[in-house]
Each structure stands twice: as structure tokens, then as C-alpha cells.
Amino acid sequence: MKRRLYPLVLAFLLVPAWAQEGKALYGQFCASCHGAEAQGIPGAIPPLAGNPRAQDETHVVQVVRQGLSGPLEVGGVTYNGVMPPLPQVSEAEARAIAQYLKSLGGAPAEAAPPAPRVQGDAALGRALYLGQKPLRNGGAPCQACHTVAGVGFFGGGSLGKDLMDAAKRLGGEAGLSALLTNPAFPVMREAYKGRPLTEAEAAALAAFLVQVSQEAPRPPSLYLGRFLVAGVFLLGLLLVYQAAVWQLRPRSLAERIRSQLRR
Q1: What is the average pLDDT value for the chain, to the nearest integer?
Q2: Which residues have C-beta within 8 Å of that of residue 204, sequence separation ≥ 6?
């Protein structure tokens, strides 16, 4: 009988330790979006405290490791965003996070008064996106990997997704600001490792992406036309350069003699 009780006693003693470790991991990987008290961002990012799904350890581990997308309802509010997978979080760490969320109980956390949020400047965000204004910590401009709404003469990179609907997918301005401040996407996280965006830069880029999400999408043929115009222009420059080089070339002796005879 005593032997049967040992595992239960051991588990009882370890749960608080797991929860404490999970709290630290939650602060590292989750709090930037879901809030320090797991209260979420109203209308943008769902709360985890008081969320029945967050009491299911298996579900939490799966979401942390594999991500989640699509509409879901929490507390009568529908959220329709994307949580990217966090492959850098081990299964053991994900379980520790799940234990911490369990320790919060099923009652919704009382949301702390929201900290004053930096007002995003869409014009500044556009300049940062295009690289016209360098990021303070030296990170690459968004356009190096992404394209959005025909912004920029040639569009942008193709490594990342088109950001035209990023505001709708990722929780609006508040959700975007949180994700830009603490990137959850592996490639983006590595790209900005040691070169994080400032709060003002994240807010400006978020405001810009919200603004472009309200614009009509531009057809791909727009870029083709721009490439053709640029190609014709460059071809013209090449022909002018070639003609100038031909005129300035050293003349042979025969050409000089013929030139003298014509005179």
C-alpha cells in the first residue's frame, strides 16, 4: 500500500516545482502576447486564465509545440488568429507551462489596468518596412523577406508570407505589436536575435500593417509592368553607354587616314 502511495506523494511534491518552472517559461515564451497574468488582449489574443482549454495539459502541449489557427471562442468572445508553433520549447518545458496554467485555476484572471500603449505611426512604419529609415538596433527591414499590398517599386522578398492580411490573422494592431516585440516565428526570431525592435518601431509597423490591410489588394501584374518598365529603361541606358564607348574608342591607323582623306 505504501509503495502505491509513493508515486502520488512524489507527484504532489513535484507539481509546485513544475508550476514555478512553468511560470518562468511562460514569462519567457508566452507573456508578451497573452499577458503577464495570462489575461490576453481583449478582442485580439485570447486569455489563458479562465480558459477551459488551458486546463487540458495535452491540449496545451500540442498548441505550444504545433501552433493553432482558426476561430475559437473564449468567454463568449470569438478570436480568429494564428499562434505559431514554438519548436524551441521542449515537450518537458511545454508540460511545465501547462502545469503553471493549471495552477491558475479555471477562474478568469482579473486583468490588470493596461499599460499605456505606444501609439503607432503608420507613416513611420512604412519607412521602417521599406528600409528608408533603419531600425534602431540594426535589424533587416521587413521588405527583405515580405511583400505587402504592392508597397515598394518591386514589391518585396518571397521568403516570408505576404503581409496584406497580417492584421486580420495576427490579432490586429495589439497582436502585431506583441508579436513584433517578441517574435514567435523561428526564422524571424533568428533574424532579429540580438537586434530586437523597439516598442515604438513595433507599434509603427503594426499601425502600417493595419493601414495596408484596409486597402484594396494590388494585382500581381502590377509588378510585371514595373519590371518591364525598369527593363526597358536599363536597356536604353546600356545602349547609350555602348554608343558612347564606341565613339570614344581608339581609332585604328586606317580609320585616321580615311578621316584625313575625307577632309
Answers
A1: 79
A2: 120, 121, 122, 124, 125, 128
